[in-house]
Design a protein that fits this description.
Blueprint (H helix, E strand, L loop, with lengths): L20 E6 L11 E10 L5 E4 H4 L3 E4 L5 H6 L8 E6 L19 E10 L1
Antiparallel strand pairs: 1-5, 2-3, 2-4, 2-6, 5-6
Catalytic activity: [protein]-peptidylproline (omega=180) = [protein]-peptidylproline (omega=0)
Enzyme class: isomerase
Pfam family, one: FKBP_C
Length: 122
Amino acid sequence: MTDKTKPEIDFIEGPAPQELVITDLVVGDGAEAAPGSTVDVHYVGVEFETGDEFDASWNRGSSINFPLGSLIAGWQQGIPGMRVGGRRQLVCPPQLAYGPAGGGHRLSGKTLVFVIDLLGVS
């Protein structure tokens, strides 16, 4: 179990980045996530443009556990190298999130900001 609380994501000034931006907010000291790992995470996601939250595992009261290979490209690229106990912010442009506008997902065409707490790796 983690002693962390749900993070607040600060509004990011300036234009949306065109590339994945990875920022370690807390560096963990546990096992390291690798491509192909299954990860146990808590996360919050907001839209870059508005700062509006669209999803958060914290709101459901439990973390989620899934193989990295089944996630959006921004997570597949942004989580490896992270260590258990860490908190990382990922800013994912549309091509690394849900694709260009009109892609059929409600978040298509949007740059997304996630704060991810890595709780476990297997």
